[in-house]
Amino acid sequence: MRDARDLVVELTAGGAAVHSGGTRYTVRDTPAGERCTCQWFARHGLSRGPCKHILAVRLAG
Ligand SMILES: [Zn+2]
Hints:
There is one protein chain. By secondary structure, this protein is α+β, with helices and mostly antiparallel strands. Helix content is about 25%, strand content about 40%. It has helices at about 40-45, 50-60, and strands at about 10, 15-20, 25-30, 35. Strands 1-2-3-4 form a four-stranded antiparallel β-sheet, covered by helices on one side. The longest helix is centred in the C-terminal third of the chain and has 9 residues, at about 50-60. It is globular and about 25 Å long. The structure holds zinc ion.
């Protein structure tokens, strides 16, 4: 598993885009917490802690 620091974070209006290899994920900050478009987040949400993309955005922010 790649470390969150290997991801490239691009801050955008209303959230951030996280590039991992050739894939782009969108992270948004909502009143209920961050949301990510990756499969891991779709399956687990924040119940098992944030995914590495959300972590990368937190590190970048
Ligand atoms: Zn994610």
